[in-house]
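Progress against Task 2.4 (sequence-to-structure conversion) is shown through the following example record, which the project officer requested during the mid-term review.
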Amino acid sequence: MPISVTLARKLDVVDPQLREVLWAILDEVERQREEAVTKNEFRALRDIVAELAEAQRSTQLKIDSLAEAQRATEIKVSALATSHEEMQRSMTEMQRSMTEMQRSMTEMQRSMTEMQRSIKELAESHQSLVLEHQKTRTELGGLSETAGFTLENEAFKHLPALLKQEFNLELQGRLIRKSVPDRKGKPVELDIVGEAARNGERFMIIGEAKSQLSKSKVDAFLRKKLKQLAGVFDVEIFPILVTHMISETDTAEYARQRGIKRLYYSYEFI
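Structure tokens generated for the chain above:
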């Protein structure tokens, strides 16, 4: 222990033997003080070491926790990387699909353009065909009308003799084509009409000329001509039909059963 100057001076005046004792006492005090200090320092050091150990354990726990967190993070990063790869793969596939779709749409558009062009061409062709058909119908109508008039003209020339020969009907004048008003005054176009007599009895010859006769045309003649003229004349109507040919084999019998007096064929006018 350090000795102050004052204490040293006082010890110098003390009896040498006593001074030796005092120095011995001071040395013992110093030794004990040093030992006490060392123990305290040891305890303090032990406490410090304990705190360091605890701090190390805490730090190790934190390091372990960080390591675990790092492993979890690595797993997540790996999962994210895998997910990113899958997403990238999906996006690549989607891009490929979109490219294919665009190619298909382009092809479809091209097909639609071709189809529209074809439809336009078909429409133009159809319009042309319609015009040609109308023209053909007009021409055929003209031919049919001409053929009908020719058939009627032949009938006008040959029917008087045939009616006389087969039915003993004597024409009172000529057979003609004309329009006759029905009971309501509506005109009815007749192909063949003329008066005839037999044994003092009078008849009105009413005929229809058809290039090709069918059952439906027989019905039309009965409905549109004879029925409308019923009661118009004060004499009996004598209905006849004239044709080049018939559509069904039983047309002549069909006409006879419905009251037609005679069906004449054009070959009979030779």
